[in-house]
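for ur thesis appendix - Thiamine/thiamine pyrophosphate ABC transporter permease ThiP. copy paste whatever u need, i formatted it the way the template wanted (i think)
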Amino acid sequence: MIAYQPSRVPAVAALALLALALAAGFLPVLRMGLEQGLSGLDPYVLRVLRFTLLQAGLSTILSLALGLPLARALARQSSFPGRAVLLRLLNLPLALPAIVVIIGIIEVYGARGWLGGLFDIYGLQGILLAHVFFNVPLAARLILADLERIPPESWKLSAQLGLSPLAIWRLVEWPAIRSGLAGAALLIFLLCASSFAVVLTLGGGPRATTLEVAIYQSLRADFDPPRAAMLALVQLALCATLALVAQAWGGLAAGWPALRLQPRRFDGRTALSRLLDGGVVLLALLLLVPPLLALIGAGLFHINFSALLLRALATSLGLGMASAALAFVIVWPLAVLAVRSGAWRKVASIAVLASWIVPPAALATGWFITLIAQAGMTGLAAFLVIAMNALMALPFVSRVLMPALAQSAEAHDRLCLSLGLEGWNRFRLVEFPVMKRAIGLSLVMALILSLGDLTAISLFGTQDFVTLPALIYRQMGSYRFDEAIGTAVVLSALVLAFSSLAERWSDQR
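the 3d part is after this line
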């Protein structure tokens, strides 16, 4: 029987749109960087690169140093009270926008915070604290997923042989997590190297500046496109190198894993083991809970639904929905072909990840140079923010749609071929009814990503064009911290509402 062959025209159009966006960002940067040559690599650029690598490396080491023991503690102690709550708590740091968490950290460790005076929150130490807050839960969940994939037979055999905790680590646990640990480390390093909101707010000055923040300062504060182009080229080289290393090691960690059934383990039953594991869990709680409590406790009394906040809220929702729709329109035709063709699967994978290899600040630099050379950016800010957020959301949308489309293709291709259903009619009558939760989940995930974005709106926003994260940053910069806390609570509530919806749809799917 002839196989169902969807049209390639929409996928080719999506690829052309992606290629145009990436070329418009990359080529101007490359041209301006080549014009400068090695002279563009001045001491300032090299100092920024060194600090970027330093803080990313230290953040990765610290995150794994706590995330690995936390994952082992959760794997060994599978039935203590509050374990399910703790696992849900590990979802919060990545669900909340960075600027919101930063507000909570300042409320605890800042000059007027609960632990004010303990150390200076601004500078390298503040950046490391914020990165550890975000990435310890990520590391713990990724490693825990690998530990939970160990076959139950391995635990039975280790109990029968009477293996010591050290032997269990060496013979059972380490082989199971070794490759995943490398992927998790690369993912965390990449996230910290491209961190923007954390460094922008907690950097404390030019001595603690990363490539992304330096690009922003070159474009918006100094109006120095040549220096921004050189910084963008350095960041492109760094991200491309990390991508090649990740490919050689088997790729980055797959992403945020779902909860699995906990296999029965026979170790960790001694009083000493329970005490050590409990200490690790307590340390994680001391890291994660205070900023969240401080944010809620202070923010609830400072919410002010002013006209400015409502306008920022409407702008955030409008940009988020537009970004989600654009990401879906790009991914859908690629996914339709990818689930039916190995060659298109490779093309689609490269296409959706290209937006991560070309980081946001580097992409924005090229767009900035192109548009300034043409007619300026007046009136284009919204379009540029939507385009950038859509590009950043492509991998998330793809990861949700691909499996659902593969199941739909297997179940309905023959029927649709016999009925002559294709294109819009097939989507309307077949795919949308059976995939509406997967489609909704992909759109909500893209919306959540856009709601928390500070990079694009900082680079392209104007005085009258502001989103909730940008409003929080402006309020912090104007020493209106109480207002910033109230706005952060509103943004948190909005993001958590959509996150709960996404989690419910994911479970039902």
